Amino acid sequence: MIEFKGVQKTYPDGTVAIKNFNLEIKEGELLTLIGPSGCGKTTTMKMINRLVEPTAGDIYINGKQLKEYNIHELRWNIGYVLQQIALFPHMTVEENIAVVPEMKKWKKKEIHDRAKELMQMVGMEPSIYMKKKPSELSGGQQQRVGVIRALAADPQILLMDEPFSALDPISREGLQKDIRKLQKQIKKTIVFVTHDIDEATALGDRICLMNAGEIIQVDTPQKLILEPRDSFVRNFIGDKKSPWQTAVDIVASQTVSRILTQTAYEEGNFDSEQAYILSSDDGQVLCAVEHGKQQNVMEIPNDMNVLEAVSVFENTGTSILPVTKNNELIGTLTQQELLTYLASKTEVKNGVVTQ
Ligand SMILES: Nc1ncnc2c1ncn2[C@@H]1O[C@H](COP(=O)(O)OP(=O)(O)OP(=O)(O)O)[C@@H](O)[C@H]1O
Ligand SMILES: [Mg+2]
């Protein structure tokens, strides 16, 4: 849908903003662009609607080079939302929304219906807000109007440059939900710039992480978190790994207290209320002992993750598993330890589990 091929941008003063940019953004995709300040995010966006011209390489929309489009048609077909929404202060909300549809010569009734429909979509009651001026709206409401103004003439592409960064966390979350909902309903291709990795992962089908004019990694949020390409990516995204992805040796007790040697077992030298892993005197795993009875177990390697360990527990039916490293018994993992660990890593905000 939008394709960058070998794109470079050097500003007239010699600043190299984009070095070598190759990227394909798919139709209906929400791609978040993220990276440190000055890495070239805004420049990338502005090249899509030709507010900035590349110094080398080409950009295509639907297979056609940008240069081949009539510039006005191109811009009408691309909604653009900026960090500081610049609504026209002397116009009402409805008039602001109507700007591009009017240029496109839509009929009055059509424009009015469209404005009403979009306002309802973002939860602003048209009968209350349609005739208000921007100064009579809250920051979050102005931002919403900015978003729907960009959508009014039904553009195929929506560019959003840090549209929510001036907002408080609650309005921000609300608007993120709106964008997700809008994208599902109207299937726009959206390029969304943000500084905030949580926003990037919450919104993006894919995340494009940039640094110093280059793409470092483009992947789904999950892949970026689980398989960061290098230490830059790892540092940028921080510790976003889900507790389910933690290796079991972090959770397991690596003390020998739950390992029962054969000799101790035969001598009855253990607490029959507890679960143990029975090992031969030379450290080989034999079985589990629960309520004094022997049961088969499966060994789990130390790098297995918590999610996989849960399914091993389901399959074996024991409440304790032996953890091995290079086939050597290094500790034990109990169901209780897993539960305690997961509970400690789970955040509950307003009754909603967030991790
Ligand atoms: N008109 C310009 N003339 C010269 N240099 C510019 C111009 N616009 C941007 N730059 C430079 O190009 C580089 C990339 O800027 P850009 O605005 O694309 O970064 P950004 O990733 O959007 O940063 P931020 O997160 O701070 O918004 C920066 O070094 C910036 O100083
Ligand atoms: Mg910017």
UniProtKB/TrEMBL annotation:
Domain ABC transporter, chain residue ranges per copy: 2-237
Keywords from the named record: ATP-binding, CBS domain, Nucleotide-binding, Transport
Molecular function (Gene Ontology), one example: ATP binding
Domain CBS: 293-348
Superkingdom field: Bacteria
Pfam families (UniProt xref): ABC_tran (PF00005), CBS (PF00571)
PROSITE patterns membership: ABC_TRANSPORTER_1, ABC_TRANSPORTER_2, CBS
InterPro entries linked: AAA+_ATPase, ABC_transporter-like_ATP-bd, ABC_transporter-like_CS, CBS_dom, CBS_dom_sf, P-loop_NTPase
Family, similarity comment: Belongs to the ABC transporter superfamily.
PANTHER family in UniProt: OSMOPROTECTANT IMPORT ATP-BINDING PROTEIN OSMV
Record-given protein name: Choline ABC transporter ATP-binding protein
Organism this protein belongs to: Terribacillus saccharophilus
